[in-house]
Amino acid sequence: MTSDPRKSDSTRPIPRAEPDEETRRYADGLAGLLEAAGFPRMPARVLMALLTSPHDGLTAEQLSDVLDASRAAISGAVRYLESVRVLRADSLPKTRKRVYRVVSGWYTATLSRRSLYRELAERAAQRPPALAEGTAAGERVREMADFYAFLDRRFPELLEEWESRR
Hints:
The chain has 166 residues and is mainly alpha-helical. It has helices spanning 21-36, 41-52, 60-67, 71-83, 114-125, 136-165; strands spanning 58-59, 87-91, 98-102. 19% of the residues are buried.
């Protein structure tokens, strides 16, 4: 007797994952906003498909069906999302399949590399003489350094406040 690969145990099939058209458009719109902000396109689409799915997680096969994308594209996207700690992969019981799930508080993962803001502020403050204060370029670089120094100071407070409100 061979087991049905669409079953997570001996009795329960893996549910179909295709969203209704309104949900699909909504998820695509959110993914488009992330892409416009610099997030890679396919990881943005995968993230929004997972986020808007009524299921706790989706397999690569389901993501491929939902997004009408190749398995290779899905594989690259989930690797990227795992690397930035936005999703996790769990084994589907009694199969070799993985179920991808959005990590709780995933949106703060983009803020967790706070040292980046400090590094940008410090590096920007170490400008060469050609970018001295009083020059147009120097003022732009100073403003960038000030902005990232501000973020470096304020993010701990903002994250703490967010966690207390959750």
